[in-house]
Structure formats: structure tokens, C-alpha cells
Design goal:
Elements (H helix, E strand, L loop, with lengths): L9 H18 L17 E2 L20 H6 L2 E3 L2 H4 L15 E3 L8 H22 L16 H14 L12 E2 L6 H10 L14 E6 L2 E8 L22 H17 L10 H28 L9 E2 L10 H4 L31 E5 L12 E5 L3 E2 L5 E2 L3 H11 L4 H6 L2 H9 L1 H4 L1 H12 L15 H53 L61
Length: 570
């Protein structure tokens, strides 16, 4: 019975139960969701064969490898008012009383400790963006970027290096390190659309590594399994909207019950109500089918034949922190540092000789110990200027002359977009025009980093205007020739019509030679008949008594002909 008192038939209730069962299956897939909160002790992951990885890097989360080291450091409580004036990069995020590393032997100024933590957060922010293929130098002010992925990374690094002080802790008292809350990690996964095509994208985990050939348990762990804000963890995540599947489920449930609770005027189901219930059931069946298709496409199943692996896909990738590290010539790998713009590195060795060091913060440019990163030359990128950029000139030319075939996207490293553009022939021309403007007006993103800014703007403008001018001229000429051809055809048809009309009238006015009897007719009222082959004039015309042409008499030579030629020959 529904809340309004309407008793539904058993068949109706059975269909509703089936529909709810489908929703439960969709809500709790046995294969595991994209973001797992807990991992089993013995790690085992299934591989999604039709999945495409996105932002799956190693380490997966910004500052993840520093969590273990930060746990071992002694921390002390401070007040927000004490440190707020010294925090630069994380000033907008740290709106709580943070804990700071406690000095070991000698006392240090709070300003120096805060700057050290702020620089660590900015460094990890810079390198994680570079690992994802972003141009990190474009996000010196993450709060004004408008990119939710960039802002989620910003929040995570600030929560990692500025942990919250424990509740009730006074300034100067020791405290433990509070890791970021689970939902701050989940917000990053959702905002950056992190996908590794297995269940290794986990915010709460325990990972076993080997050190010296011996397995060591719990060497690397994830984030605190608590939804923030909370007293036992730092930070919180942004609230996200309802999933599409849940919205469809709510809409379907409303469609079923709204149709079922319709009543007649006397308080009992009428024939109209029955038809509405039947229609709503039909709609619910369709929606159930759509939900099942949605589950089949986007949720993992429980097939025991699915390949398994014991190491997450993101852990199999090269560590971007190792790829971006700097090792001085002749020094062992153990002496590697993360930033060649650090103190003590010769200027000739900085940025691989393809750039210079530039202060990260605009307010610290004049400071002697300002945090700096490499500003690479035009054709190079990455934190150490070792990666050659793709060319904007090549991209623009491919978009201009091969855009209908998607050659520009294949060159930039986006094969799926290139295939889509090829199948649609440049979006019937609209996509082609859009990409010409997009690739020519400025450096666009390739699969990783932007293309080199090697296309002068005047070349782009001149070539684009020239090309479209030629296309417009060709279209205009073709249109003119087609119009002239149509007009000529119309004129010819008009002339033929006029000639046909005049010829019809001339048949009535000019009869021409006809067959006629041998006796001349005094008038022209009777139809004219054939008069002979010599004269075309009618025989009744006066001839001043001159005889008509007749054949020569038998036995006489020559011919006797009148002035009008042979006539009236029968």
C-alpha cells in the first residue's frame, strides 16, 4: 500500500521490487568502485581491459611519499595568528591553528620554519602538476585559476605540510602529526578524474614494500579514514554532486509512485488511473533497462576469469620525482636533489643549460633565499628543461591542411580525438575551423605540456585570412558560374517556348504548297492542294495569258515552258 492509501496489485509491487533490486545491484557492484576506502592485506587488483587511464601517475597523490617522514618528525602546536603573516603559498588554505616541526637542537624563528613548510608545499604542488603534464608556472596563484583539479592539489599539499594542531593543544606543546582526511583525497580523485583502470586508486591503504630483500609491513600508508573536518585529521573535501546513476534512480522512483498514487474523484482508482499506472510501469521498465545498461557499461563485474595483478597500475609507472631529480655531473645517484635551482648548484648546471631560475612567488623576487624553479627556453619544458616541446607551427599546419583527417590531434598525442575528427570529417567543417583558430591563436596543450610558442601571430593571421579568402573567392566564382549557367538555361527555355508559340501561329498564316486538284480554284477558300514541283506560287494567279509549262508533245523535241516554270502537272 502506498502512503496515500492506494493498494497496488502484486504484479505492480513485484515490478517495483525488481526495479529496486536493480538499483541495489548498481549501488553495490561486487567488483569494487573506482575509489576504494580500504584495501585488503594481500593486495590484489583486477584489470579493466576497456578502460583508458587518466592522470595515473606515480606517486598517485601529491606529497604521498613524505607522509611517512612527516610522521617521524616532532611537532609542536602554534596559533593561527602567530603564523598567518608568514604563510604565503598556503595562506588561503590554512585557516586553522597548524602544527609546526619542532626544532631539535637549536632554536629557530617561527618565520623560517613556516617558510620552509610553505616552500615544501609549493615544491610538491609544482612537481605534481608537472607529473600530470600541466604547465605549473601558469598556476602561481592556484586560488584564481578556476581549475578544480589544480585547487584540489593545492589543498592536499597544504594539508600535508601544515597539519592541524590537536584540539586543546596550547602553543609550544608537543603534538602528533595529523594526516589529511580521507575526503580531501577523494576530492582530488574526483576533481582530476584520476583513473588507473584497477582498484589501486585508494585513499586508505597499507602497502608492503621490500627493503634490502626483506618484506617490511606498513612502510607506506594512506590517509586517515575519517571524513573531515574532524579532530583526528587535517582538512576536508569539497562536497560533490549526486552521481548520475543515483539521479536516474530517484527520477525513476518518482515516476513509478507518482503514476501509482493517482486517484479518481471518489477516492478509488479509476480507469484513467489504471491507464496511468500501466503507462508508468511501462516507463519504469524502460528506465530499468537503461539503468541496467548503465551498470553494464560503467561498473565492474565479478567474472572470475578477469586478470588479476598484485601491484597497482600507478605503482608500475616511473616515479616522476626520480625522473625530475637533478644529479650533478660526476656525482652518485644518492646525491640527487629535487630542484637544480637550490642553493649550492652552479648556475651553468641549472635547468640543464636550457633556461634560468625564476622566483616562484612574485612577492619574494628580491629575497635572497626565495623559492625558485626553472624558466625553460621556448622549445623545452618540465622542471629541469629536459623535455622538448611539440611545435605550434607543425600543429597549426596539420590543423590547416589535415584537420579534416584529425592529423593535428594525432600529432599532439590524442588518438581518440583524432579518430573522432577523422570519422566526422572535421565535424563537417565546424571542428576544422575551430581548431584552426585554437591552434593558431596560442600554444595549446599536447598530451603533456603545451606546444612551443614558435608561430608568429602575424603568420597565423596572414595565412588564415589568405586561405579563407581563397576559399571564399573559389566559392564565389563557383556560385557565379552556376548562376550564369542557370540563367542561360532559363533564357534558352524561354526562347524555345517563344519560337514554339510563333511557329504555331505561322502554321495558321502560311500554308505553303499543298496537294490540289488539276482544276484551278477561283478563290483561296478551299484547301490548297499539290500544284507541282516547279513553281511554288498558286496556279490561280493571273499570268497575262501566258501558257503554263507543259510537257513536249509526242514526237516534238524540246520543251514548252511558261514564265512560271512547270505547273499543273498531273
Amino acid at each position: 500500500t502506498t502512503p496515500s492509501g492506494l493498494s497496488l496489485p502484486r504484479s505492480v509491487m513485484a515490478r517495483i521490487h525488481v526495479f529496486l533490486a536493480v538499483l541495489l545491484l548498481c549501488a553495490a557492484p561486487c567488483g569494487g568502485s573506482k575509489v576504494q576506502l580500504r584495501a585488503s592485506v594481500a593486495e590484489s587488483f583486477t584489470q579493466n581491459a576497456i578502460c583508458r587511464q587518466n592522470n595515473c601517475v606515480n606517486p598517485l597523490f601529491p606529497g604521498l611519499l613524505d607522509l611517512g617522514n612527516l610522521d617521524t618528525i616532532a611537532w609542536q602546536c602554534t596559533n593561527h595568528s602567530t603564523v598567518s603573516d608568514y604563510i604565503n603559498f598556503c595562506g588561503e588554505i590554512v585557516n586553522y591553528s597548524p602544527a609546526l616541526p619542532s626544532p631539535n637542537a637549536t632554536s629557530r624563528a617561527v618565520k623560517d620554519i613556516v617558510k620552509e613548510q610553505d616552500d615544501a608545499a609549493a615544491t610538491m604542488f609544482y612537481y605534481h602538476l608537472s607529473g600530470l603534464g600541466y604547465e605549473a608556472k601558469e598556476f602561481r596563484d592556484p586560488g584564481a585559476s578556476g581549475d578544480e583539479c589544480v585547487q584540489s592539489i593545492w589543498r592536499m599539499v597544504c594539508f600535508t605540510y601544515f597539519p592541524k594542531a590537536q584540539a586543546g593543544c596550547s602553543a609550544g606543546q608537543p603534538t602528533s602529526y595529523l594526516r589529511p582526511c580521507r575526503n580531501s583525497c577523494e576530492s582530488y580523485v574526483a576533481a582530476c578524474s584520476v583513473e588507473c583502470c584497477d582498484e589501486s586508486v585508494q585513499c586508505v591503504f597499507q602497502h608492503t614494500v621490500s627493503e634490502g630483500g626483506m618484506p617490511t609491513e606498513m612502510v607506506q600508508t594512506g590517509y586517515t579514514d575519517v571524513l573531515g573536518p574532524a579532530a583526528v585529521c587535517t582538512g576536508a573535501g569539497h562536497r560533490s554532486g549526486l552521481p548520475i546513476g543515483m539521479l536516474l534512480s530517484i527520477f525513476a522512483a518518482h515516476a513509478v509512485f507518482d503514476g501509482a498514487t493517482s486517484r479518481g474523484e471518489e477516492g478509488r482508482p479509476s480507469s484513467t488511473t489504471s491507464r496511468r499506472v500501466s503507462s508508468s510501469l511501462c516507463s519504469s521498465n524502460v528506465l530499468s533497462a537503461l539503468v541496467m545498461v548503465f551498470c553494464a557499461l560503467f561498473l565492474q563485474g565479478c567474472d572470475v576469469d578477469v586478470p588479476h595483478h598484485n601491484l597497482g597500475n600507478w605503482r608500475l609507472k616511473p616515479d616522476y620525482l626520480v625522473a625530475f631529480e637533478f644529479v650533478a655531473p660526476g656525482q652518485p645517484a644518492s646525491s640527487a636533489i629535487l630542484n637544480s635551482c637550490s642553493e649550492g648548484v652552479a648556475q651553468s648546471l641549472q635547468c640543464s643549460g636550457r633556461g634560468y631560475c625564476k622566483a616562484w612567488s612574485e612577492t619574494e623576487r628580491i629575497s635572497a633565499n626565495a623559492l625558485s624553479f626553472c624558466e625553460c627556453d621556448r622549445d623545452w619544458t618540465d622542471p629541469e628543461c629536459r623535455t622538448r616541446r611539440k611545435s605550434q607551427v607543425t600543429t597549426f599546419l596539420l590543423a590547416l591542411f589535415g584537420g579534416f583527417f584529425g592529423l593535428d590531434y594525432f600529432y599532439l598525442g590524442w588518438p581518440w580525438w583524432g579518430a573522432a575528427k577523422l570519422c566526422t570529417l572535421g565535424g563537417c567543417g565546424f571542428w576544422w575551423v575551430l581548431d584552426i583558430v585554437r591552434t593558431g591563436s596560442g600554444p595549446v596543450y599536447a598530451f603533456d605540456y603545451r606546444v612551443a610558442n614558435d608561430l608568429p601571430h602575424w603568420v597565423y593571421v596572414l595565412s588564415t585570412v589568405t586561405l579563407f579568402g581563397l576559399i571564399g573567392f573559389a566559392v564565389a566564382i563557383e556560385s557565379y558560374l552556376s548562376f550564369r549557367k542557370r540563367k542561360r538555361e532559363d533564357v534558352m527555355k524561354l526562347q524555345e517556348s517563344e519560337e514554339s508559340r510563333h511557329l504555331g501561329k505561322m502554321d495558321e498564316m502560311l500554308d505553303g504548297p499543298r496537294y490540289r486538284a488539276g482544276v484551278p480554284s477561283p478563290t483561296f477558300n478551299e484547301p490548297m492542294r499539290f500544284s507541282g514541283y516547279g513553281a511554288t506560287l498558286p496556279s490561280p494567279l493571273p499570268n497575262a495569258g501566258v501558257p503554263y509549262a507543259v510537257p513536249s508533245p509526242p514526237g516534238q523535241a524540246g520543251r514548252f515552258a511558261g514564265p512560271y516554270g512547270p505547273s499543273r502537272i498531273s
